[in-house]
Amino acid sequence: MKKITLLLATLIVVFSCINDDDITPVQDPLVIAEFRPNLSELNLFKGNLSDLNISSRAFKYELNSQLFTDYAHKQRLVALPENTTMQYNGNGLPIFPDNTVIAKTFYYNNDERDLTLGKTIIETRVLIKINGEWETGDYKWNAEQTEAVLDLNGSTVPVTWIDADGQTNSVDYEIPTNTDCFTCHHTYENTTPIGPKLRNMNFEVGGVNQLDEFISNQHLSGLLSSSEVSSIVNWEDTSESLESRARSYFDINCAHCHIEGGDCEVQSTLRLAFETSLEDSNIVERKSSITLRISEYSEDFSMPFIGTTIIHAEGVELLRAYLQTL
Which of 155, 226, 274, 316 could serve as a FRET partner for 310 with CA atoms 20 to 30 Å apart? Predict the structure, then answer.
């Protein structure tokens, strides 16, 4: 009995000497900046893969104006190597360090009226910066939603979901090939990200400016405040001017091809970056062609060529209204 009492007393002394500062929290494993066969091997997520819980080694980002992809939802994240940051480089893309991983996961909520009914995850597109150059890869999720496998050949996945109005929708979702990815993700001969330009991320998320949060969390260096960066408008924000909204829609959905060095540089005179003046954009001269090619879906004719298989009704309505003012 005396031995038990002595043991308990010893344990009490030991535990009383331990404070919170002595306890090292268990960290998530490092993100692997390689195209491994399975998405789980990259360590971008923790716990059940299908929960899409982002690792503490990565962080989520959102865009003020988003690309349309057949009404799919998207989760976007960046994983920077330890002790590095994105570096400010003007209003466009920041400078990402080597071994940065950018991932975008596409999914559909099974029923937009009740999110507890789960989601169907289709693909996770990944960009990795290796030796100064971006490389692309795409992970296709299995039917069981337990893993995603590297697949560079593309495929078609039938998807059905119920929208917020209770209507059942179906689409033959097209996962792009690696060649398709390069078609959109290149400027001249260099593969490049499209979305995470600083002007696209300069807005409030959850009541806090996203860029200021990046600065505070030491994810972004080279500037003191988001006030040093311009901002693009949300094309869905009806409080903004019709012109700004339409130009914002063109920017995120079309400008990656319709710019100098883009895939449509030679085939088209359109230059659709948000900051390009109306005169230099050639939108007025090409408005009839634009209207025709956005108003119906026809493979190899409608715009954009890649990434959609149906018409974006809300986007078409916006662009038509704008083009009618010109």
Answer: 274
The span from the CA of 123 to the CA of 89, in Å, is: 30
For the chain, the C-alpha Rg in angstroms (whole number) is 23
Q: Is the dihedral of CA 64, 67, 73, 75 positive or negative?
A: negative
Cα three-residue angle 171-177-179, rounded to 5 degrees? 135
User: 3-state SS of the chain: helix, strand, coil percent to 5?
Assistant: 25, 25, 50
Q: Give the C-alpha distances (Å, rounded to integers) separating 156 from 35, 56, 114, 121, 320.
A: 22, 33, 26, 13, 30
Report the alpha-carbon distance of residue 66 to residue 216 in Å, rounded. 25
Tens digit of pLDDT for each residue in 267-302?
Answer: 888 898 999 999 999 999 998 988 888 887 777 666
Separation of alpha carbons 29 and 55, rounded Å: 8
**HSE-up (13 A, CA, CB side) for residue 239:** 0
* Helix (H) or strand (E) run with residue 160 in it: strand 155-162
User: In what helix (H) or strand (E) does residue 182 lie, and over which residues does it extend?
Assistant: helix 178-184
Q: What is the mean pLDDT of residues 178-206?
A: 85
Rounded Cα distance, 112 and 164, in Å: 5
Q: How many other C-beta atoms are found inside a 10 Å radius of the C-beta of residue 187?
A: 16
CA-to-CA distance for 177 and 149, rounded, in angstroms? Answer: 14
Instruction: Name residues whose C-beta falls within 8 Å of residue 137's C-beta, 6 or more positions apart in sequence.
Output: 35, 125, 126, 128, 150, 152, 178
- Residues linked to residue 170 through DSSP beta bridges, in sequence order: 160
**Closest to 103 (Cα-Cα) out of 131, 134, 133, 132:** 134
pLDDT cut 70: percent of the chain above it:
90
Place of tokens 């700004």: 244
Q: Where are the domains of the chain?
A: 29-232, 235-326
CA dihedral angle for residue 129, residue 153, residue 62, residue 74, rounded to 10 degrees: -160
> Which element (helix H / strand E) includes 103?
strand 101-109
pLDDT class for 189, splitting at 50, 70, 90? confident
